[in-house]
């Protein structure tokens, strides 16, 4: 209530509805307060957005090319790495330095240079590995049991598929051994009692292209190859020698129409005739491939190479070994599995074509090469296996002298 005396003194006319005036004043002040709050909130959001964007730019894994403005936008698809300097002088040292644009490129650089340093076998570590492995695999040895023979399996035995996943409350899928299968099995493993000095395991990575490693591979005492990669067109890089070559049943289905017709059978026989000694068939990996795989044993009449059936129990033994050591649940790749067979029967193991990455860096003058998934076809990368994890294990085996990985050019 406005005092009448005060109103007269300051020439203010009293209002009859002071309560109404109070409400209007309150409403007006509340509106002003709300506008102030909204304004502060808007400024705060804009400020946070601005600084977050700048922080993200500063914390991004990409490094800006030397000499570019801070405000310059990076290209949409920057190269993983580039030369530190484009100076034309041949004596300019920084031309030999990399400017890593993404962290992945720096990792590849370190991997390559580590693997290209001088290597020597470590017999102590090799013996420690064999001791640990033999404690687990006392009943299944690589030389005798990596394939099915008439000595390690009998008619009516049940074979558990190697790629079955254990499901609580459900029985594992199995195959009952038939007389027909027994008739197609050898009496003993071709590796039974064997011991080789130098072995090579040839993987499928496109890093083999232009490597000129063929001659070095062919000098090995025993050569393991993966998934029937063609020999003649790539002999300079991957060699010609073959002692054990794996063949996934999916190849029989895809390339040879499940051997349904005579021409398919003829094409199959001709395709595998380029390999010597043995073809290793994982007929009991998954159930859907079994019939096509076993059919190849029935229709193939050649003597060289021989068709051998992988022992699912031995494959699963290797897989379980690494799963117990927190490897993961993904099935092992063929190359990773063959490496374990080689570690059991070879004194010195060399790996070629094991590179799970899509790029490779040249030391000089700083060029980046795309690496195809396979050196012999255009197959896209699959995620059936944990290639990166396998590479990490093999890299450490290389470090500890169990085997040598080759990722550069061979002299």
From TrEMBL:
Annotated region (Disordered), positions in chain: 63-90
InterPro entries: Glyco_trans_29, Glycosyltr_29_Sialyltrsf, GT29-like_sf, Sialyl_trans
Transmembrane segments: 32-53
Membrane topology recorded in Swiss-Prot or TrEMBL: Single-pass type II membrane protein
Highest taxon above the source species: Eukaryota
GO biological process: N-glycan processing; oligosaccharide metabolic process
Protein name, as recorded: Uncharacterized protein
Natural source organism: Strongylocentrotus purpuratus (Purple sea urchin)
